[in-house]
Hints:
18 helices, two-stranded antiparallel ribbon, mainly alpha
Amino acid sequence: MQPSLTSHPTPGSALQPTLRQSVTTAVLVGGLLVAGTLVLATAAVQPLRGALLLLVAGAGLAGLATVLVFARGRLTDLLYLGLLALASVPIDKYFAYREHVGGWPGLRFAASDVLLLGLIPSLLLGSWLGRVHNRIPPIVLILYGLLLGQYALSALGAEERLLAGFEIASALHALLLAAVCAALFRRRYLYPFLTLLSLLTWVHTAFAVAQSVTGRPIGLGLGGNPESVIVESLTSGVQRLRPSGLFDHPIVYANFLVLGLPLLAAGFLFARSRLARLALGATILVGLSGLVLTLSRGAWLSSAVAAALFVALAWRQGLLAGRQARRFLRSGAIAGLVALLAFAPRIVERLTASASGNLEVRFELNEIAFRMIAAHPLGGVGLNNFLTVMEGYDPKDVMEYFPATVHNLYLLEAAEAGIPGLLLFVSLWVAILLTGWRRLAAVKDPALRWLAIGLIAGLCGFLFSQLADFSHRIEPLRTLVWLHVGLLFGALAAGRRLPQIPIPPNEGRRA
């Protein structure tokens, strides 16, 4: 008998992969224990904000190391979902910080940027292999490039060029974020994204309720870490607290809800599980409660605009018919009745007993902006420089009692970057929304069509709110807005084809 040429495993060789993995695991655990001890020891002597940053960084590194060893193929998925989760949590640090309101006061680096940087190699490698493509429409990229060019011209004439440079860096960051989120979006991220959004809504609102009950700025040192909760004094003599969740201002928290509530409503309508609908319905009620607590009249009106547009878009797309229409109307009626019973006195009080000076000072700021536009119609006074030059256009000395940027994003764009800057900014958003609307018809996946409708409605509501606000310039809201832009074009591209479901062989023969 000829000897077999097939090699046989030697005793113990079958244990080698297990042994190798065990050694790797032991080294990993040991390294993490040592690193964790060092991080905790360092965090113990840091202020609360610095300690949180260190702990988050340590947890992130531990998670990354674990994924690299045990689930390397899911790294991109986890980085992407982590980015979605951290985008609306203000864990950040500014370098070259300058005391300023109205744009980036320094070069910002946030916890979410760590994950964004981690996704860029996947984007580049996928592009090189032909598996990942740019999903931002060319017209949007062209208009964004022209806007950046106008920003650069405005920066040349700015009194504080460094501040202008910070705002240009902010604009570049927003575009990069949108491009990465759009290119790497996958349909399988849909339900995890809604889960994360629901969780964030509960967390921010829980802190908002705690702030309202205690009257203390409970926020774990995140955001701007305000020294006290903002108080609204009404003409009736009543003082109402305005909580901000984990954000640094109630209006930022309110706009987070303006963007998120249409997405939660979309998830409620396409979810098939009764438990999922129950959870999303409860989250919507929690979000509406938080929206009322902010006492932001602009956000209330913007939410109504977003809701009306959401219904109109869904109806035009044929998604609100039959049982879904009845479900939506029934749920909307229940939510409206609960809100009316719980918050009607507070809402009426805010609308009828607010101090008139709060509105008057906004008109005075508008007048200052108009003077800047008249004096510098082409190049503006300089990007991110409204407060820097405000005194020269302020004959009523508004700056003495209200040193703030004009509370109208569109006037702010025109004042700082000139009328060309305003026209390009408005054209950019018109292109984003119109392109999104036109591409909806090609989306075959109903769930992704619902998601896109929620994103469009939320963005429109937010843009409406900027007629009386400038929170697009405030982080992490700007990051969140452009993340939604990326999600919009990612969902529109991913939904053009229905997922392929394999047919069992027997079923095929029966057909």
